[in-house]
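If you are new to this repository, start here. Below is one unmodified record pulled from the training split, so you can see the exact layout before writing a loader.
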Amino acid sequence: MNKIFMSGNHTFGEAAIRAGCQCYFGYPITPQNELGEYMADHMRRENRVFIQSESETAAINMVIGAAATGARAMTSSSSPGISLKQEGISFLAGFELPAVIVNVMRGGPGLGNIAPAQGDYFQATRGGGHGDYRTPVFAPASVQEIADLTYNAFEVADRYRTPVMMLSDGMMGQMKEPVVFPEKIEKLPEKEWALKGRGDGPSRYLCSLILDALEMERHNWKLVRKYNEIEKNEMRYEEYMIDDAEIVVIAYGTTARIAKGAIKRVRKDGVRAGLLRPITLWPFPRRVLADLAGRVKQFIVFEMSTGQMLEDVQIAIEGNADITFHGRPGGVVPTPIEFARIIFREYQKVVKK
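And here is the target side for that same chain:
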């Protein structure tokens, strides 16, 4: 297979096109602008729809309209832009419409800066908008994973009729690596529920306005059953040097890459450290962590935030092991040496026990 040297942002675009994305709607914001630029050029070449909308709010509502017709639709933005899309993402969940939303995170809160950060974890994994709903969240840690997981995100979105979030960051979006792309999808299956115009067939409608409270309750429990299926079938994670580990690092995305470098360093000094990397941030690999806490009694959570994934780790471990947190928020990118020092320090506590 041929490898293509490509940035993360461009890879999001190419993978989406190969996955059958028929409509892209977006509004410029750094550090994800290269994605929109790529789609502006390549969607036209494929005779597909690209619209640079007048705002982020307009973009997500265009996604709703396209998804309702059965089209594979995508939008992208960065942190504050995703905030503006949250009402529309909630509407997608309520309508049960598939779509892919890419967030190339930057420092925050507020306008923040354009540096890579991981401060949008709560927003992504807790739904972010109003109402009872969940959003599957994929967190790639390489440009190759951006390609593979974007492709998969469209499949998951269609399979469960749900919006799916791709959570990246400014570093992942700008970096370049060799990529092997999946085969291009030439023909998508028909969606029986899609609004195509009545013609000679039965009338169809989609609605998330349910004024009767009992009907709304039934709809919520229907969504819960779907989310339970997603938790059962779509959870993904990576284990790195876990088998003999006495201390385990938990990190995702860019931070996990840095943590791997740190683990390689401390292993040379006899520190038996390993890494558990969530690939799906929701569903979060809670069962895996709970089982791991049966034999490992020291965990370290690394994040480029003040500690958001940390809460999911605490919930999973249920007090059965010690957890140390080290965060660098606001766009500060840690180094492998920095992480290695923390791992070594915490390992000394394990040895003394």
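Two things worth knowing about this chain: The chain has twelve helices and 14 strands. The longest helix spans residues 213-233.
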